[in-house]
């Protein structure tokens, strides 16, 4: 009986130590989805999406959700599993993704995670940072300011209180800006000063793979992707969502610009050019975030998959 118990403990430790999460990151439109599918097929495993914009079933074209063919090529999780009407934050995702990983790792020692949402990637691989509780009236006041004067004054306030946060968070996302501001105001300390807490223990190791290219190439790929989205029916998708345009999930690149067009505040050409510009800015912020992580092994976006597989197997 005792010997059997010891053997089971040893086997469980070996299995746990072999559990691996391959995290694929990089700027938008760089080719992360294609690489993740090739790796999932090679390692006979499944994919967890850490792209927070692709969680919502009503948002398809504007978030570059993998095609039906891509979804059929490998089992995906956390793709269009929520409604824009549901509240779903990074803490919820951390809980759900860790739970899913525990299930997948029981049969598959390697699991793939792919996504450009830096905070969501970090939540799974390293855990979320701890933030102290602050007076809830601060957020109420900030939301009132947002409603009365728009996002720009709040962005400028964050720039003054925590310039580092201003440069690294999704500055076009009101929820992220207000969250950073309420910490700054409520604690008297920069939001980013709380981003250095020890990592949470995980029962898997993470191998982080980054895809990158020259900035001009990234920008060209972004511009081409936006043109394809428009051709594939982005305007119809956004128009159908107008009744819900005030929801936080829809306050994002590709949707908010076209809401302005449908309200008569801009021309279509200008709206499309703004989508391209704002997506390029988003890609720049993505790279700023990921470059802070020294554990990421970067590869050119044209690198052959066999080279990346060799790196993973020799890790």
Automatic annotation (TrEMBL):
<dbReference type="InterPro" id="IPR027417">
    <property type="entry name" value="P-loop_NTPase"/>
</dbReference>
<dbReference type="InterPro" id="IPR039657">
    <property type="entry name" value="Dimethylallyltransferase"/>
</dbReference>
<keyword id="KW-0067">ATP-binding</keyword>
<feature type="site" description="Interaction with substrate tRNA">
    <location>
        <position position="117"/>
    </location>
</feature>
<keyword id="KW-0819">tRNA processing</keyword>
<comment type="subunit">
    <text>Monomer.</text>
</comment>
<dbReference type="InterPro" id="IPR018022">
    <property type="entry name" value="IPT"/>
</dbReference>
<feature type="binding site">
    <location>
        <begin position="28"/>
        <end position="33"/>
    </location>
    <ligand>
        <name>substrate</name>
    </ligand>
</feature>
<keyword id="KW-0808">Transferase</keyword>
<feature type="region of interest" description="Interaction with substrate tRNA">
    <location>
        <begin position="175"/>
        <end position="179"/>
    </location>
</feature>
<feature type="binding site">
    <location>
        <begin position="26"/>
        <end position="33"/>
    </location>
    <ligand>
        <name>ATP</name>
    </ligand>
</feature>
<comment type="similarity">
    <text>Belongs to the IPP transferase family.</text>
</comment>
<keyword id="KW-0460">Magnesium</keyword>
<dbReference type="GO" id="GO:0052381">
    <property type="term" value="F:tRNA dimethylallyltransferase activity"/>
</dbReference>
<protein>
    <recommendedName>
        <fullName>tRNA dimethylallyltransferase</fullName>
        <ecNumber>2.5.1.75</ecNumber>
    </recommendedName>
</protein>
<comment type="function">
    <text>Catalyzes the transfer of a dimethylallyl group onto the adenine at position 37 in tRNAs that read codons beginning with uridine, leading to the formation of N6-(dimethylallyl)adenosine (i(6)A).</text>
</comment>
<feature type="site" description="Interaction with substrate tRNA">
    <location>
        <position position="139"/>
    </location>
</feature>
<dbReference type="Pfam" id="PF01715">
    <property type="entry name" value="IPPT"/>
</dbReference>
<keyword id="KW-0547">Nucleotide-binding</keyword>
<feature type="region of interest" description="Interaction with substrate tRNA">
    <location>
        <begin position="51"/>
        <end position="54"/>
    </location>
</feature>
């Amino acid at each position: 009986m005792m010997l059997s118990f010891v053997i089971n403990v040893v086997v469980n430790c070996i299995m746990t130590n072999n559990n691996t999460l391959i995290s694929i990151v990089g700027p938008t439109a760089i080719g992360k989805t294609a690489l993740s599918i090739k790796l999932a097929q090679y390692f006979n495993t499944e994919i967890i999406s850490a792209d927070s914009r692709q969680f919502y079933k009503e948002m398809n074209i504007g978030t570059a959700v993998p095609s039906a063919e891509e979804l059929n090529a490998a089992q995906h999780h956390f793709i269009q599993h929520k409604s824009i009407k549901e509240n779903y934050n990074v803490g919820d995702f951390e809980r759900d993704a860790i739970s899913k990983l525990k299930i997948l790792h029981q049969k598959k020692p390697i699991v793939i995670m792919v996504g450009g949402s830096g905070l969501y990637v970090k939540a799974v691989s390293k855990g979320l940072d701890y933030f102290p509780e602050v007076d809830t009236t601060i957020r109420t006041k900030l939301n009132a300011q947002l409603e009365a004067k728009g996002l720009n004054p709040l962005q400028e306030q964050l720039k003054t209180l925590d310039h580092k946060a201003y440069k690294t968070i999704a500055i076009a996302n009101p929820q992220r800006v207000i969250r950073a501001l309420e910490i700054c105001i409520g604690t008297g300390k920069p939001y980013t000063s709380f981003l250095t807490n020890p990592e949470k223990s995980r029962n898997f190791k993470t191998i982080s793979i980054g895809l990158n290219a020259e900035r001009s190439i990234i920008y060209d790929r972004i511009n081409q992707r936006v043109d394809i989205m428009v051709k594939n029916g982005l305007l119809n998708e956004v128009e159908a969502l107008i009744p819900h345009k005030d929801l936080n999930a829809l306050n994002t690149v590709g949707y908010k610009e076209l809401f302005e067009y449908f309200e008569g505040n801009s021309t279509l050409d200008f709206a499309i050019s703004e989508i391209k510009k704002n997506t390029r800015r988003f890609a720049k912020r993505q790279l700023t975030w990921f470059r802070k992580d020294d554990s990421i092994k970067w590869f050119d976006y044209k690198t052959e998959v066999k080279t990346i597989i060799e790196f993973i197997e020799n890790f």
